[in-house]
Each structure stands twice: as C-alpha cells, then as structure tokens.
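We modelled the chain as a single entity of 339 amino acids. Its sequence is:
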Amino acid sequence: MKSILVILLSLLFCFNTEAQNKKKICVAFYNQENLFDTLDTPNKIDEEFLPSGTYKWNTEKYTNKLANMSEVILAMNDKIGPDFIGMCEVENNLVLTDLCKQLKKGKQDYGMVWFDSPDERGIDNALLYKKSAVKKVSSHMFMIDTNGIGGDNTRGIVMADFTLTNASRLVILVNHFPSRREGEKESEFKRLFVAQRLKNICDSIQKKDPNTALVIMGDFNDYPDNASIKDVLKAKAEPSETGTTDFYNPMNQLLKQGMGSYKHKGEWNFLDQFMVNKNLLNPKAKVSYEANSASTFKQDWMLETEEKYKGNPKRTFGGKKYLNGYSDHLPIYMYLNLN
C-alpha cells in the first residue's frame, strides 16, 4: 500500500513539474483600421485624417480611437492582452507610442517594432510585444520592388526576430498585401508578387536555420484558397500536409465553421491569417503551435447593433458617419506552447 502511494505521489509530482515547465504565449494580429494622428505628414496622402479633412479627425476622435483599440487588445488573452500582436494600418511610431501608453494604463508593458514604409497613404505594419515575454529582439523591414506591383509604393514586410524566455527563437513576419481596390483580378498580380517576396524571405531564413519557428501573419487581402496563399506561400489546410518549406494555415478549419475576421456582402471570410511553419507543428519542440487554438476574438460590444449592419464589426466610421467604433476587421489570435 505504501509503495502504491509513493508511485502515485511520484506521478503527481511529474505531471505538476511538466505543467510548470510548459507555458502558453498568445500571438495575435489586428488591423487597426486607419490609426492616424491629427498631424499632416509631408508627402503622405493623410489629408482625410486631419481636423480639416473629410473625417474631421481631431484630438477627441484620436483619443477615443486609442482607448477603443486598447480596450479590445486588453480584453484578449483572458484580459491581460496578447504577448505578441501584429498590426497594420498604423500611421507612425507616434500613434504606436500613444497606444503603448494607453495599454500601460491597463498594466501591460509593451515594446514595439516599427519601420516607416513608403506606403502612399502612410499606413505601416508593426508589432507590439510584452517586454516580459522576450529576452532579446532584432528587427528588419523587407521592401517591395515597386516595379513588381505596377509602380505603387506599398508597406514593407516587417520581421521581428525574438529570443524567448526559454531561449528558443521565434521569427514573426507582419504583412499587409496590396488591396483589391482596383478589382480582385485586376490587382491579383500585386499580391502574387508580394507573396513570392515573402516566400523567398521565409525560405532564406529556414535555409540559414532549419530549426527556426516561423509565424507569418497579416491582412493578406486574399482568402485562404486564393493563389497567393495556397499556391505561392504553400499554405496547407491540414498539419499532415505541411512539408518542410510549407506552412499550415489554421484559418481553413475556422472557415469551415462559418467564422471569419472580415465580413463582405454578408459573408465571413479571412483576410487576416496566421501561417506557421512545420517546426511549430512539432509538440516536442521548445516552441510549438497549440493545436486548434487559432480563433477570432469577437465580443458583442465590438459589433454593430443597427439592424441593417447587425453583427458586423463596429467601425470608427460608417461612410462619413462617425460611429466611435473599433475596426472593420476582427482580431485573430492563437497560442504557442513553450517547453
């Protein structure tokens, strides 16, 4: 009887030790939908978001926007905010600094990765990270050759290369592919070009370090079954289909459940997506994707209540009408396990 008790206590100790040695981190992405300051930036098309502009964008509206976006972020991950959150449609480091100050009021201390891109409207990609979640960070922005996208200036691909608290390496690439403003088919060549640039970057990273844990995130302005995602990035719908240089795209499974991050003509789909490389699918690795953890973050207070648009993400503006909302996109999130 005594020996059985000793065995049971030993097993319990082992299970508790394993649980203590495992830690979850929350990774998210959120399109900020025009997080602009109220100042005129030279050589950028930001006139709409000035006090004299179309949206009469003033200090009060800007302050409301910061409060609203931080409210969503701080509500995520059991109300402590994600450990890492990629963003697009942020104007500059000033708005990110102000957002981090707002988040600090919620007792969350974030650092930021940002580069000033040549995008014509001045909207950039960025990534915020909890300082307590990392030991070291380096970063870089990969530019997009304008000749490949019809002469446009667009946002670059932001890379953040982290050493995590368990000494593992995590590389995150934040994207915002060219829009469909000119039409889906007419603009497709731009997204295909940027997707190939992204794939080349990923292949180069993995060639130098085959053990790298790699996360692609962003607003791709394409859906999981579009060519830029499925064919160029080689993003698979099932983990078992994912080869060494492929990616697994968990949004495919969520789409089958009727979920989405963006609603177009009454239909949900995923412009916002995560893709993880094969290394992250190994549960025994020092950092790994937690199966079935990807989802959208959607709360009733983030949605429209007006009958015509009921259930849609509540935006800052509906047309030119000020709604004092959040974003036209929902944030997405997933969990990684640290061993």
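As a brief sanity check on the tokenised model: The domain at 25-333 is CATH 3.60.10.10 (Deoxyribonuclease I; Chain A). The chain is about 25% helix and 30% strand.
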